[in-house]
Specification:
By secondary structure, this protein is α/β, with parallel strands linked by helices. It contains twelve helices and six strands. The chain has a four-stranded mixed sheet. The protein has a two-stranded antiparallel ribbon with strand order 3-4. The protein is globular, with a radius of gyration of 17 Å.
Length: 288
């Protein structure tokens, strides 16, 4: 995807603090603590409050929790490696795209972009509790930040069989979708519905994740002039690789799925990309 270079005046970016060899390494795993089991349950939006305790136990003895430094050089953070630069480019584009969409909807006053923090410590503080690289990319609604360990992208490439950039951009766009859900009140509505109907908790969680997938597609669909040959296929392969059925390989009942099957995730991303219309996503996945 031919994204324009990032603009630090339009994004909030930094690191989580601590020392772990910088922001991470593009093209090399660089983080032995990322394991398939963690990816299967923690990737793409699972509430970090629910997973922090488990991951913290996995990480005992591997370093103290860190706090983010103040007054970081945002350009230096973004230019630290290829994956970080891609993520910053994507965040700039996502902010511009969704700000315009909020403007169209007469909701410009409600828009605010999320922060992006690259993991530079095994454990770090977030508004949702202790974060860890083992959790995979996630969004924290309490501090409205996305947290990414760029080493995850190498694992994603192995899982999806793709090394293309669009699979990685899909990760950022999906987490951004959770941010849009937060500032529009959609997340709060779904959480309220879950508390009122506990038997529907997993089904509602799946809908929220598929909705975020669809929103990721909307961003791409509204920038289709930047799409390159092969991007659509890269996105489909990534969506297929991180479906609940693919990740758990039948070890977990479909009743306990939290993100949707490979087919469902592919359909959600496809809907957003082909229509570029978030209203279509709302109509399809927010029928509670």
């Amino acid at each position: 995807m031919r994204l324009n270079p990032f603009d630090t005046s339009k994004i909030d970016v930094g690191t989580t603090g601590g020392r772990r060899g910088g922001v991470g390494k593009a093209g090399g795993l660089g983080c032995g603590t990322i394991v398939i089991a963690a990816l299967g349950y923690f990737v793409f939006g699972l509430d970090p409050m629910q997973t922090a305790g488990t991951v913290e136990g996995m990480q005992q003895g591997q370093g103290q929790m860190q706090s983010a430094p103040a007054n970081e050089d945002e350009a230096a953070v973004c230019n630290s490696n290829e994956y970080a630069r891609e993520s910053c480019n994507a965040l700039t584009s996502l902010n511009e795209t969704w700000a315009a969409r909020f403007q169209e909807a007469g909701m410009a006053d409600r828009f605010r972009g999320p922060g992006l923090r690259f993991a530079t410590a095994q454990q770090f503080s977030t508004g949702c509790g202790t974060g860890s690289v083992g959790m995979g990319p996630f969004y924290c609604p309490a501090d409205e930040r996305m947290y990414i360990d760029v080493s995850f992208y190498d694992q994603l490439a192995r899982m999806a069989g793709e090394g293309g950039d669009f699979a990685r951009l899909y990760v950022v766009a999906h987490e951004y979708g959770h941010h849009v859900q937060t500032i529009t009140g959609i997340s709060e509505q779904i959480r309220s519905a879950q508390s009122q109907n506990r038997g529907m908790q997993n089904q509602l969680q799946v809908r929220m994740e598929l909705h975020a997938d669809c929103y990721a597609g909307v961003w791409a669909g509204r920038n289709r002039n930047l799409i390159e040959p092969g991007d659509f296929e890269e996105g489909m392969n990534a969506a297929a690789a991180i479906g609940d059925d693919a990740l758990t390989q039948g070890r977990v009942s479909s009743d306990n799925f939290t993100h949707g099957t490979s087919r469902q995730r592919m359909e959600a991303l496809r809907l957003g990309m082909e229509t570029g219309d978030d209203d279509q996503c709302d109509a399809t996945y927010l029928r509670i």
